[in-house]
From TrEMBL:
GO biological process: tricarboxylic acid cycle
Assigned protein family: Belongs to the citrate synthase family.
Pfam family, one: Citrate_synt
Pathway: Carbohydrate metabolism; tricarboxylic acid cycle; isocitrate from oxaloacetate: step 1/2
Protein species of origin: Mariprofundus erugo
Active site: H269, D327
Keyword Endoplasmic reticulum among UniProt keywords: no
Protein name as it appears in the record: Citrate synthase
Amino acid sequence: NGLLTYDPGFRSTASCQSAITYIDGDAGQLLYRGYPIEELAASCSFSEVAHLLMYGELPTAEELTGFQRNINDHNLLHDQVLSFYHGFRRDAHPMAVMVGVVGALSAFYQDAQDYNRDADQHKAAIRLVAKMPAIAAASFTYSIGRPIRHPDNRLDYASNFLQMMFGKPNEPYHVDPVLAKAIELILILHADHEQNASTSTVRMAASSGANPFACIASGIATLWGPAHGGANEAVLNMLEMIGSPDRIPDIVRRAKDKNDPFRLMGFGHRVYKNYDPRAALIRDTTRQVLAHLGMENSPLMATALELERVALEDEYFIAKKLYPNVDFYSGILLRAMGFPSRMFTAVFAVARTVGWVSHWLELKRIGHGIDRPRQLYTGPTVRHLDKR
Ligand code: CMC
C-alpha cells in the first residue's frame, strides 16, 4: 500500500500530541511541563511533581495540602484486594504480582463504567497513584512472609513507601531523612518520560476506552522487560556477574561483539544520544547515600564507575553515542537502601504510575480516537483450499 509509511519500532513516528514531558536527546535535556528535571529534583517533593505532571502546574500550598489529603483518603487497599496476594506463589516476581493486583482493581472500581466524567477520571488517577506504593510494598512483604503494613498518613508519600517496605509490624518506623530524600529523587526522576514503551502501551489501551486500572496494568507489564524498566535489575545482575573492575575489559568486548547477544545493561537509549541527565543525578545521590551508610567502598559502585569510564572512552560506545541511562546507578542506590533487586522495577512502576495517569488524563481530554497502526503484510498472497 503506497500510502503507508513503514516505521518499525516507531523510530520516527509521533503517535500523539502531548504537553507533559519534553526530551532533547542530543542535549541531554529533560523537562516536565517545561521545568528542567534538575531544578525539580533539587527543590520539589514527589507530591509536588506528581501534581505538576497530572494537572499542568506546581501546586500552591493549599493545592498541595488538598492533593496530599486526597492521596491519603485513597491509599488503603480494599480488604478483598489484600486476599489476592495469597493466591500468588511467595517467590513470584513482584512485577508479576503487580500486573495481577492492579489489573484486578478494575473489578473494584468499575462504577464509572466508561470514565467519561472529569471527576471520575481524576478519582481513578488519584486512586492509582495513592495505592501503588502499598501494592508494591505488599508484593515484597508477602514474598518474605511478613504481615502487610498499611500506609501511615502522618508520613509523606516517599517515606510512607519506605515504612510499608521496611517497617516491622511491631515497631514504630524511624524515617532516615537521607534515605527519604533519596527515594524521593528516584520517584521524581522516574515519574514520566514521554512516549516510552509502557506509556505508549497505556495510551493505546486507553484509546479503546478501556478501564483505567486495566490500562495501567498493561503499562506495568510493558515496563517489566529488560530493555525498559527491567534494566535496573539487569544492571545489578551484570555488576555482580562482573564482580571486580579487572573483569571489565572482557565485558566491554562482549558488549561490542555482534555474535554475542549480551548488551551493557543501563547503557544506551532510544532518545538520549548524550548523558541521560537522570543518570548523573542518581550517580551523585548514590555516592552521598553510600557515604551516609558507611559503604563508600562499595565494590558495586567501584565496578560501575570503572565500567562507565572504560565504555565512555571506547570507540564503539562513542560512535554509537551510548551513555549511561537512568537505570545504570539506580540499582546500586536502591540496593544500598535495602531494596532487593527484584523490587527495583516495582519502584520504577510506583513512580511511573504518575506519568501513566497523566497521559491517561491527557488522552481523555484530547484523545484522537482508537489507536490502530497498520502493517506491511509479508504473508502468502491469496491461495485456495482446493489447490492444496
Ligand atoms: N550495549 C551494547 N551495544 C548497544 C547497547 C548496549 N547497551 N545499546 C545499543 N547498542 C548498539 C546496538 O547493538 C546497535 O548497534 P548496531 O547499529 O551495530 O546494530 C546500536 O547500538 C543501536 O542500538 P538499537 O538497539 O538500535 O537502539 P534502540 O534505540 O533500539 O535501543 C535500548 C535502545 C535502550 C533498548 C538499548 O540501548 C539497550 O538495549 N540498552 C540496554 C538496556 C537498557 O539499559 N535499557 C534501559 C533504557 S532507559 C530506561 C527505560 O526506558 O526504561
